[in-house]
Design goal:
This protein is of the alpha/beta class. 33% of the residues lie in helices and 25% in strands. It has 13 helices and 21 strands. The strands form four sheets. An eleven-stranded mixed sheet has the order 13-12-11-14-21-20-15-16-19-17-18, with helices on both faces. α4 crosses α13 and α6 packs parallel to α7. The protein is elongated and about 85 Å long. About 1% of the residues have low confidence.
Length: 452
């Protein structure tokens, strides 16, 4: 919708404007920074003084509108603003000064209970030429702050390190990532690969391998089989991918005779820390199952729910994704979604709240779900996104990393041990995050908590 501004000559005392604004996670974070108030982890409430940009943006964007200049204010804070609050901002012209070409606008802001949280006059220089704003709300600012992995690291730091077979750590990120995870007390690395190559790389990187066990292997294929053998005989409790192809390592891990099969379907989960979302987001399956059938999606969904429990999400909300939010017989993913939800109703999938089919926007945006009239306990607040196939999942996860500034960790579940499955393009920070998730899964397995 285009909003036309109001020129000085057209403004009269008594003119009034009202708009509403729902407080989002980013709003609370930004306003907390402005107010100088910051709590531990994710902010829940901030002094109303931090929300003064809402009043100024209302003035310069809507009333009088585009081209206005904020000359001053005497706004006062009366309370607190919390995430989810429905704020009502009312502006009323009280004075108009012909000489200075300024107007005084009285501002009053109340929350959904009618409590006045801020008020005061704003002095504005209105525009002198007609302009349009072509949006309903000012653009949303996304603050790239990450909380999810800091919380997971804090949990992992309280646990003993996990003996981990690191497969072919023959490039910077895979070797340094493993050594950093060891230094942080997350893992006890067993480096499996060509000894001379690993030692030469460590020397070039200035890395100290004192006390680090190295299992010599001729090449990456040999390293994968030897690392899997370490997990089978109990010397290692986790498997971590280095600089080799995923299918090369997984072929060794999934061997029916010498691999790590547990009788359950394995699947991959991206644990994502998306700054704009404000909570952990699990995406599955984006790396292992190419085009899973219904039975495969049952296991994929259950694996992700079990992981969510380990990460501290007691009853995860699971969105079964498709391109639309209605069942359509020519779109198989919508049929699978409906069946998965019914299977959850019958106890064939447990521990989570399922809904689908849901399009991506409806799964993660309350406003999108509201616009489309979707009433759902999952819509707009999903903890887990179950994608139709590997292509959709891989593109979705990488878009969130590269476009939305998300951090991610990758873990494979369903084998005898958790498998850290990182991309060769992943940096040390991503590998550390994946190691932290793996530690939580490995220790849950020790206690008999299912992760698949």
């Amino acid at each position: 919708m285009a909003h036309e501004n109001i020129l000085f000559d057209d403004i009269r005392p008594g003119m009034r404007y009202e708009r509403k604004h729902t407080m989002k996670t980013n709003d609370v974070t930004l306003f907390g920074m402005i107010a100088g108030s910051r709590g531990e982890g994710e902010l829940c409430s901030v002094p109303a003084i931090g929300a003064f940009p809402l009043f100024s943006s209302t003035t310069v964007n809507f009333f009088p509108g585009n081209g206005s200049i904020l000359a001053g204010h005497e706004l006062k804070s009366h309370g607190w603003i919390r995430e989810g609050d429905e704020l009502t901002i009312v502006l009323e012209v009280t004075e108009k000064h012909e000489v200075s070409k300024q107007v005084v606008v009285q501002c009053v802001c109340t929350n959904q209970t009618g409590e006045q949280i801020a008020s005061g006059p704003i002095v504005v220089v209105p525009p002198t030429e007609k302009r349009l704003n072509r949006f309903d709300d000012p653009p949303q600012l996304t603050l790239r702050q990450h909380y999810v992995f800091a919380a997971l690291r804090a949990k992992a730091d309280d646990l003993p390190p996990v003996p981990t077979a690191v497969v072919h750590p023959c490039d910077h990120d895979s070797l340094v990532g493993a050594l950093e995870a060891a230094k942080a007390g997350l893992i006890i690395p067993i480096l499996v690969g060509p000894r001379t190559k690993i030692e030469a790389l460590a020397h070039a990187e200035g890395a100290d391998l004192t006390g680090i066990r190295i299992v010599d292997a001729e090449h990456s294929h040999d390293a994968a089989h030897k690392a899997v053998a370490l997990c089978r005989n109990g010397e290692a409790e986790a498997l971590m991918k280095g600089s080799l192809h995923t299918d090369e390592m997984m072929r060794a891990a999934m061997s029916s005779t010498t691999g790590l099969r547990s009788g359950k379907r394995v699947s991959h989960v991206f644990v994502m820390d998306v700054p704009a979302y404000g909570r952990p987001l699990l995406v599955t399956d984006a790396a292992i199952n190419i085009a899973p059938d219904l039975a495969g999606k049952v296991d994929i969904t259950q694996n992700a729910i079990n992981l969510a429990h380990i990460l501290g999400i007691a009853e995860p909300k699971v969105a079964i994704l498709s391109a639309v939010e209605t069942v359509y017989d020519k779109m198989p993913s919508t049929l699978d979604a409906a069946l998965l939800c019914k299977m959850a109703d019958r106890g064939q999938i447990t521990g989570g709240i399922l809904d689908g089919p849901l399009a991506f926007d409806n799964a993660i945006s309350m406003s999108a779900a509201k616009t489309k009239g979707i009433k759902s306990p999952v819509a707009g607040q999903a903890d887990i996104l179950v994608v139709p196939d590997i292509e959709a999942g891989n593109m979705l996860a990488k878009q969130m990393s590269y476009f939305a500034g998300a951090d991610s960790a990758g873990i494979v579940l369903g084998a005898r041990v958790p498998i850290v499955l990182t991309s060769r393009a992943d940096d040390v920070k991503t590998r550390m995050a994946s190691a932290a998730v793996m530690v939580l899964v490995a220790h849950a397995g020790r206690k008999g908590v299912p992760h698949a």
